[in-house]
Amino acid sequence: MVVKSLAVHSAAISDQESRKQILKGVLSNLISSLSGGMLSFAMGLMLLNETHSPFSFSLGTIITPTVSLILLIPAGTIIDQKAHKPLLITWIIVRLGALIIFGGTINIFSVSHQWIPVIVFVAITAVANYFINTSYQAAVHELVNTKFVPRLSSLTQAATALASLLSPMLGVALYSVMGFSWFIYLEISSQFLVLLLLLSLHFYYEPSLNAPVQKKSPSAWQGFRVGLAYLLQHPLLRDLIIIAMLVNFVFTAISIGMPFVLIDHLHVGNAALGYLETSLAGGTLMASLLLSMCDSTKYFLSKLIGGLAGSGLALIVLGIVFTVNSNLLIRGALVLLILGMLTALINVSLQVKLQTTLPTNLLGRITSLMTTACQVMMPLGALTYTFLFQISSRPALIFVISGWLLFLSIVLATPFLWHDSQKDSY
User: Fold this and answer.
1) Are 197 and 249 members of one domain?
2) 368 and 71 Cβ atoms separated by less than 8 Å
3) Where do runs of H (alpha helix) occur along 265-327?
4) Distance (Å, rounded) from C-alpha 11 to C-alpha 179?
5) In this structure, are 350 and 368 located in the same domain?
6) Which tens digits make up the pLDDT trace of 164-193?
């Protein structure tokens, strides 16, 4: 079988070209995240109105980690073996096809059975998004030179945060005016635009890509074992994945607990919840934009430990604010703004570290491993915190306990992180 070398020569990408590529890549991410978020929100509203089931807004939480587990072994190897641009084009076309079929068939089903095409569509979209997101992260060195990798990561995080900020508000406003079907048309148009932007991007491969070497491709399992062996040989990388799993688990306390505490326990209403969630997304957006103007490759471990410890303290303070219930909106918004900024610092620092130090031929497999590990923690965290918030007579204290869990875990892990970083730069 023919295998093409996918080594890249980022040094050949000029600064001017890198800036153009960043603009196209970030714009593509913003359009895709915003339209996808609006469609997801409108789909949840549609199912809720027609089925009156709380399951309506949790489809993605259940299906996405399941898809990630199924794709864990083959996806990373495929992404590392194949040219990334054709792979991205293929899966965007698959997502487009799924959208068109979904839009044409959903009204065929009765109201009580519309969850069937929704589940099929969400599953196909989850597969496509897994390949698209992982391929894009693995391809950063093919888009910009090494100097611009941190800026691309920071601005991509900013685009995602802006989409998270706007999609619920736009989703609610437009749903009441247009109805659900128009969201499908809007998403189809957005995906066509994303496809055009992708086609305009230039992926810089090594010239040897045009002269393939005859070599037998490793199987998906063999490729996965290579990635896993690399992970086990590098203790700092292993530490980072464990920490990412812990953070994803603890942070589900916010997505699960904040609506429960504010609406069911403190009775402050939906507007307060929206205001506080906006503060969290706003903090992430602000920090991501600031980080895009800084050198994100320096002081990695200090920024990571500081961001994680600070996030734990912010959760503690948030729990105290909810317990005291005095000037709730102002104090809560300030805490969540800081927490959002710390979240961006953690995410960007970690992503830049991986993209600037991992071998490019393993980026897909390691990114796939980390993505799956983190996504699996989300439903586990959701189940755990749903149970805890339901049985607790003082639910705000769960934020305090979770914050202490994160803070103490980081304090105890810090000596090991420093030790592993000294002997393992991977």
Assistant:
1) no
2) yes
3) 270-291, 300-324
4) 49
5) yes
6) 888 877 887 888 788 888 999 999 999 999
